[in-house]
Specification:
- The protein has 123 residues and is α+β, with helices and mostly antiparallel strands.
- Helix content is 27%, strand content 41%.
- A hairpin with a 4-residue loop joins strand 5 (86-92) and strand 6 (97-101).
- The chain is globular, with a radius of gyration of 22 Å.
- 14% of the residues are buried.
């Protein structure tokens, strides 16, 4: 009877290992954009997103300025690189203060930042 239990335990272990391997490959790796990729894919481009259900347009300008435009208000400030991300310091607008984010490319012109905001780069 112990041989039967050993076989069942072994089969269970093999099935478990197979399931873990399959699930881990299905999720796919998520990679944070590098400073060079951010420079090429984000900076100087107009980004369209939704924040709290409202459309917002963000532009990280090449000169280090940043602007955000909501339907009823806007904000501006500066941005700078921070490792593999950027930090922006808004001096006016709805979200004053410093915020740092990283970016993840989702394919095509779709991205997500580390705050979970999805956006599209205008072509």
């Amino acid at each position: 009877m112990s041989t039967f239990r050993n076989r069942v335990a072994f089969i269970g272990l093999v099935l478990y290992a197979t399931l873990v391997a399959v699930v881990s490959t299905m999720a796919g790796p998520t990679t944070t954009l590098t400073k060079e990729q951010i420079s090429r894919e984000i900076i100087g481009k107009t980004l369209d997103a939704k924040r709290m259900g409202l459309p917002v347009t963000i532009l990280y300008k090449n000169d280090g300025a940043v602007t955000m435009k909501f339907p009823i208000m806007s904000g501006s400030g500066t941005w700078s690189y921070n490792g593999n991300g950027i930090c922006m310091l808004l001096t006016n607008g709805p979200r004053k203060g410093r915020t740092c984010v990283t970016f993840e490319h989702l394919g095509g012109n779709k991205y997500r930042n580390s705050e979970g905001i999805y956006f599209t780069v205008r072509k």
